[in-house]
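debug: dumping io for the single-chain case to check the tokenizer round-trip. Nothing else runs in this session.
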Amino acid sequence: EAMFKVREKRCSFNKTVYEEDRDSFNCRSSINVYHCIQNERNRSGEICIQPVWVQPNYCPEYNTGANTLDTVPCNVSTTGSCPRALFLSNEVYKYPVCLNKTFTGGKEVSKESTSSTPGIYIGIAVSLFILTAFISICIIVFCFRRKRQYRRVDVEIPLLDENEPFYKTSAYYEGVTFLGNGGKILCLEGLWGSGKRSTAKQVYMAVTNSTPIIISDLLAFDARKHYKPIIVSQALLTGKSHEEMEHFKEKILIFFKNTPSSKKVFIILILKENEDREAVFEFVKSFVTQEKDIKFLDLSNSLTRGDRTQILSSQFERFCPNKDFSKIENLALKGNDNSLGYPEICALFCRCNHFQTVGPSVFCNQPLRYLKSYLENMHQSDDNKKFLMFVYMSLDHMVINVNNQNDMLSGILESCNCTCDPTSKETKVETEQNELSGIDSTGERGNIEQGSFSRNLPKLKKHYKSKEYITSLIPEGFVIADRLQHDVIKRMTLIVYGTYHFDKLLELFKPEELKAWVKEKGMIPDVGLDDIKPVLEIDREQWRQFQAKLSY
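debug: decoded output
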């Protein structure tokens, strides 16, 4: 474990001296490199640790309790001396303000701000008065405009939990810099779960200082009445007809053409995993005058070692606050990330104790296999009602409202019960088998379309319909603020459900919603991955049934 060695002298600002100190300290790992840095108590010290990216106007700081590097705001009166560019934490010697913090009167300041004169104080007081008045006016105007803006776009933006961890990676800074310098089209690509949507939203907010506008259907988008940057979250070319692609092209051309030149406008495209980069580039290059106005960022391949450590640390700190990070930090350097994006792997691992008992290295290499196994065990155990809650939330836009239960929720939960003695072990086993296949206590197959359970199945006891009972069925960890987190949970839940009850899956879903991940057995090429693929493979007879329903 890395140790922070406190030193009596402050860290040097001189590159030559800094390098001499580095050579004397003798860090032997190519991953954990030399840092002379301050900790959270502003004590200077040396340590061999993995570097992290530090954003402009921030300083790196060693967190003694977590044994990791944090980034903290550069709080000094002379803002010009704060870092103005992205830099690696082991290059902190270039920014003396980050190595020269002290405590005065209980407040953290920089030494360079401690000398002043009465005249300067008077000037500062007057300037602060003017600045305060100006800021107050700006806040009033901003709040008024922000309120109006929320009314216009809040329907388009289904926000996740506001406290969901997000680490600003090097790709994030590349995107912000590109769009901030006038870039027109930013294409985000990467594996499923690589954080494309969350990165797009964060980049958008950083550049525009406004709420993201997300378009999920370009054909319905009114390009003539819209003059603000947008995020497009849909398949651009894959599975689209020539006519649809021409409509897309027309919409985007109108969008750029109608926007006044005085306004900064751009599009962030969230590419699906199977989109072809070259085909997308050929499609979008007609919208810009120069190819340099287009940028592709692959979020799966752009993560630095520091990015990976910080992503894992942010998730672990949120969901495992009382556990020792040092025991799992090697996860940041494990795995091949071939089946699932690294941020999603970290989220699953930190949310679920079961995955932590498997071990970080094992889980990291086969996250989808272990997730599917976990859901299958839930489906076949006494917790099968919790599994059905997953199924219901996957059907109903990934949300659950315990105060407003609909007929479908009641029906799915009622299908777990029958009129016979619930204390009988044989009855319980038979009921659990019937409930997931949609067969009621008379042996007839139930209809799980919305509203039909109340007619076909026995009424559940009143306390089973209570808010307390429904709340007890919501699986912890994967559900936050009554919303099922992460599309990967939804997909794998429905794959498990469809594996055992494909007929019921077809009844609950429109076939068009399934065709992207329901495939015939033997039709998916083996690309040599250790992990399973996020698809439901069905036999030939089921495939014919599925194709027949698609053609209706």
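debug: round-trip ok. Residues 103-122, 144-162, 417-461 have pLDDT under 50 and may be disordered.
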